Amino acid sequence: MLNLQTFKAAAVQAAPVFLDTNATVDKVCRLIEEAADNGAKLVAFPEVFISGYPYWSWVMNPIDGSPWFEKLCKSAIEVPGPEIQKIAQAAARHHINVVIGVNERNPNGIATLYNTLVTISDEGRILGRHRKLVPTWAEKLTWANGDASSLKVHQTSIGPLGALACGENTNTLARFALLAQGELVHIASYIALPVAPKDYDMAEAIRLRASAHCFEGKVFTIVSCSTVSEEIMDAMSATHPEAREILARPNSAFSGIIGPDGRVVGEPLVDKEGIVYGEIDLNRCIQPRQMHDITGHYNRFDIFDLQVNRRPLTAARFHGNGQEDEALNVFPESGESFGEREI
Fold first, then answer.
1. Catalytic site residues (predicted)?
2. Would you say residue 298 lies in a domain?
3. First and final CA of the chain: distance in angstroms?
């Protein structure tokens, strides 16, 4: 018998403590507690919330921005690791599912970073990590490409849950790959991007992309976007005074919850910090699919054939009878394998 969940979801719109990993992790744990105390069973955090976005790549040339890249590498975390473990413990303590964006450092490459989303169950298990497939525009100066080894929908206490980071929510095939796995709840994590072209309304662009995914897939989307704090603007403008005017541009952040009809549930947040809440009834995902079920009857799979390569991308693959520690391939909290040992 089909038994779909009804629950409250929360979307955080806030800024991290810029490049301060421990302080940001503490902030995350406080926000998890706040969301849970308000009845949320799922809370989404922004893209690379731990512990900051490389705004310098947009307001400085690569030479001037290079010292900031070093700071980001030093503040980045490994997954799994003690920082994520602390957040997982908070998730278990408050019985809430968590999706959070982090700057993930390759354990074998001190300057190889990924824009990563980590999904944690309400029992504190790390269900998976998803590394952003293609860094957007100036982000290519910071992050390496991810792969599809973790382009997966996770079975959680609130339903089938998938997640994509920022511009990935414009990638039709990545979105379809999640829908084809039965996704009903989607997390779209973003950063406030006031450095876009002057005629570009970032807040509206975020809402539009979320609405498109919801309407096409008949799913709910929780959008969580960061904000640009005074701390960030002060840091960037210390050597580049023009940065403040650029980073203070309004209509750069949108957080909210979108229903399967593409409409906003409740009141969204634009630019200001806070937590958005919304009631999600997954039964609402059924009726619209009688008209358009793009992963079912409303498609032609004899014509279209999407193939997804889930092999992990690694610098080297080792074969034979060496003494390789197989535990390196597994998240200890979940037992989920990530394939070959990454070197």
1. 47
2. no
3. 45
pLDDT of residue 322: 64
C-alpha span between 172 and 304 (Å, rounded): 14
In a domain, 37, yes or no: yes
Above 90 in pLDDT, residue 331? Answer: no
Average the pLDDT over 176-196 and give the result.
96
Residue 330 lies in a domain: no
pLDDT digits (tens, 9 = 90+) for 240-285: 999 999 999 999 999 999 999 999 999 999 999 999 999 999 999 9
- How does pLDDT run across 11-65, given as a tens digit for each residue? 999 999 999 999 999 999 999 999 999 999 999 999 999 999 999 999 999 999 9
For β-strands 154-156 and 126-131, DSSP reports them as: unpaired
- Of the CA atoms within 13 Å of residue 205, those in its CB half-sphere come to 19
User: What interhelical angle do 82-94 and 21-37 show, nearest 10?
Assistant: 10
Query: Which residue(s) pair with 116 in the sheet?
Result: 102, 131
Q: How many residues does the chain have?
A: 343
Say whether 34 is catalytic: no
**Domain range for residue 87?**
6-291
List, in sequence order, every beta strand (DSSP E) within the chain: 6-13, 40-44, 97-105, 113-120, 126-131, 154-156, 159-165, 185-190, 220-225, 254-258, 264-270, 274-281
- Residue 155 pLDDT more than 70? yes
Across 207-226, average pLDDT: 98
Please, what is the average pLDDT of the chain? 93
Instruction: Specify the pairing of strand 220-225 against strand 185-190.
Output: parallel
What value does the mean pLDDT take over residues 65-94? 98
Residue 326 tokens read as 């197989």
Answer whether residue 343 is part of any domain.
no
State the total domains in the chain: 1
| DSSP H helices in 76-129 | 82-94
Q: In 152-249, which residue ranges form alpha helices assigned H by DSSP?
A: 172-179, 202-217, 230-237, 242-247
Q: Tell me which of 33, 34, 47, 342 is the catalytic residue.
A: 47
Residue whose pair of structure tokens reads 């920082």 in the numeric block: 83
